[in-house]
Specification:
The chain is an alpha+beta fold. It contains 21 helices and 14 strands.
């Protein structure tokens, strides 16, 4: 059974496409067709069975099976050695001072940082934070990158995009997939040499559906080079970059069958190759400090040695670059939220209305508490994932997608509430919050639109759960040899059926959080039971049930958020952290509300009234699209 972990997109016909862990096969499913597309269709079943099975240690993937795999959540990871912590700590003061002297308003008006700011960024190593020292980088672990992200996120999200587009995705492919020759040639240029790199994937016809790109690279007859033609849109840094990671269709011959097919290949392209041009900077809602432009490739001659990650492996390269860097958004946006909370708290403690400071009003207190909890959850997710990555774990893609969804939506909520607390002052540009709100909006769209990532989370988890049901089916065909598995599953289902659940997280948390852990466990049991029931009911047709999938994704997000804060707050108590009592308060309050949301979402998934109402809403949407606008007539009869 294939296990996929990357969603390509959802077409206008409702077709969902996802790839397995190694890019070898894709699941294409929709109302018109459902099938596996394999890059090696001639592989025999016995050969597949002989392959060594891999153990998935993802906390969320296993929850879809109704199983607890605590390795990547409990206890909260602390993967850095003392030298790494000291090194990261030594950067905090100089980087903070650098941002204290930085003017985000000026940078926005100028369309980017000035030359002096760029020069300082290069000199401080901020453009090569995770590059190895041998190439001039700081060699920061993922946790260090997240910490630096918090600092830039509190200063300017436009500048955060400048940082991220360059190193989180721009040259990250060279670091992850480059040959030694490619690394020696290109990393020094982009780490310390003042050369901007960018990531070129999106095209007019392919946004979330990355597999539908039309740019094409044709290999020469002698195999020495490729000729690239095509264009890319909305490329961060596209007008400034001299080195591009570009994805294009290439004709690839299957070595086993001899069959030729188009597959995406990644290339390292230099502007100096000729034929590379850029359009004018885009006029955007936000992140105006970051250059965004179209990039055109006209008969660009690319040496064959500039293929990145192997011919035909471009889709895998692109998705792993995005997956690898996605966790960083949680850190960056946690910094943004912390800044907004400071602004709101400063105002609440000084603003007097009706004879008292507004910090005493229950409505304001509730806003501040929810803002703080959203920031706490986002930060916890970011450091949970980065810590696991630093520990060498590789099964983090579901969690990284969840953290991106949550933090981007939490940041919008927190900034919007901060503006509300400041009232008219918050609406003024002088507060700085207006700019943050505009900048935040893109984070729900780029590096995986949240709508697509929600489907990715649910479909990936369901696929993993489905493979477990297949395993049970096989076990029942030979029950004598599989009694252990059958009895284990039967016991678990029996416990669930009488309403007691089967999950116990109490051993992982400190005593003050036992009740909160029980709420999280309740959510897990309701979630897992629903997943199983939907798989049995819909089978492969579940991919067409987006109303259900989205609510399952929201439940998964809440469960992961609860798990992260339970783990982090327990760590704070065990280590006698000065903020431990405050963290306990936030973890408790969050679990109460998150469990309530899970219950609501699961009830809607299982309630036929809500499912039927989705059909009603679908009909409304079709009417609107048919008219390309509102359908109803004026209520008083005026045309």
């Amino acid at each position: 059974m294939h296990r996929f972990h990357r969603l390509v997109g959802v077409s206008n016909r409702g077709v969902v496409v996802a790839c397995d862990t190694n890019g070898a096969a894709c699941w294409l499913a929709g109302k018109s067709q459902q099938r596996w597309l394999s890059a090696s269709p001639q592989t025999k079943p016995k050969e597949r069975a002989a392959a060594a099975p891999t153990v998935n240690t993802s906390f969320m993937a296993n929850l879809f099976r109704g199983e607890i795999e605590p390795l990547q959540v409990f206890p909260f990871p602390d993967s850095l050695n003392p030298d790494q912590k000291e090194m990261i700590g030594s950067l905090i003061d100089p980087v903070t001072k650098f941002f204290d002297g930085y003017d985000p308003v000026k940078a926005e008006k100028n369309g980017g940082p000035d030359e002096a700011t760029f020069q300082s960024m290069w000199e401080m190593g901020l453009m090569g934070m995770q590059a190895p020292e041998e190439y001039g980088g700081l060699a920061l672990p993922n946790t260090g990158y997240a910490r630096m992200g918090e600092l830039v996120g509190a200063a300017d999200l436009g500048l955060a995009v400048v940082f991220g587009a360059h190193q989180s995705i721009g040259w990250k492919g060279v670091l992850l997939y480059g040959t030694e020759e490619q690394k020696r040639k290109y990393l020094p240029q982009v780490v310390t040499g003042g050369t901007i790199a960018c990531f070129c994937l999106t095209e007019p016809s392919s946004g979330s559906d990355a597999g539908s790109i039309r740019s094409r690279a044709v290999k020469s007859a002698d195999g020495s080079h490729y000729v690239l033609n095509g264009s890319k849109i909305w490329i961060s840094g596209g007008g400034l970059a001299d080195i591009f990671t570009v994805f294009a269709q290439t004709e690839v011959t299957d070595p086993k069958t001899g069959q030729k097919k188009d597959k995406v290949t990644a290339f390292i392209v230099e502007r100096g190759f000729g034929g590379v041009t850029s359009g004018p900077p885009e006029d955007k809602m936000g992140i105006k400090c970051s250059n965004t432009a179209e990039v055109y490739f006209d008969d660009v001659k690319i040496p064959a040695e500039n293929v990145l990650g192997g011919e035909g492996n471009g889709f895998k390269v692109a998705m792993n670059i995005l997956n690898n860097g996605r966790f960083g958004m949680s850190g960056t946006l946690a910094g943004t939220m912390a800044h907004c909370i400071r602004k709101a708290a400063e105002h609440a403690t000084t603003r007097v209305q009706f004879g008292q400071k507004i910090e005493n009003f229950g409505n304001v207190q509730e806003k501040l508490a929810r803002m703080a909890m959203h920031q706490y959850v986002s930060q916890s997710m970011g450091y949970m994932i980065s810590g696991n990555m630093d520990a060498g774990h590789t099964d983090y893609h579901l969690e990284a997608a969840i953290s991106k969804i949550f933090s981007s939506e939490a940041a919008w909520y927190v900034c919007d509430e901060a503006i509300q607390i400041l009232g008219g002052n918050g609406f003024m540009k002088s507060s700085g919050l207006e700019k943050f709100l505009r900048d935040i909006r893109i984070y729900r769209i780029f590096e995986g639109a949240n709508d697509i990532l929600r489907l990715f989370v649910t479909l990936t988890g369901i696929q993993y759960a489905g493979s477990h049901l297949k395993e049970l089916q096989r076990a029942f065909k030979n029950p004598t040899a599989n009694l252990g598995l059958i009895f284990k599953e039967g016991s678990r289902r029996a416990v669930r059926s009488i309403g007691y659940g089967g999950t116990d997280l109490s051993t992982f948390v400190v005593d003050p959080l036992k009740e909160s852990a029980a709420l999280c466990a309740d959510s897990i049991d309701r979630f897992s039971k629903t997943i199983e029931a939907l798989l049995i009911k819909h089978g492969k047709g579940i991919v067409d049930q987006q109303f259900l999938l989205i609510r399952l994704a929201d439940s998964a997000i809440d469960i992961y958020g609860m798990s992260c804060v339970l783990s982090r707050a327990s760590k704070a108590v065990r280590e006698n952290n000065p903020s431990a009592e405050h963290e306990l308060l936030m973890a408790k309050a969050w679990c109460v509300e998150a469990n309530d949301r899970v219950r609501i979402n699961i009830r809607r998934v299982n309630n036929g009234v809500f499912v039927k109402n989705y059909d009603t809403m679908s009909a409304i949407a079709k009417n609107i699209c048919a008219r390309q606008g509102i359908v109803q007539s004026n209520p008083v009869g005026i045309a």
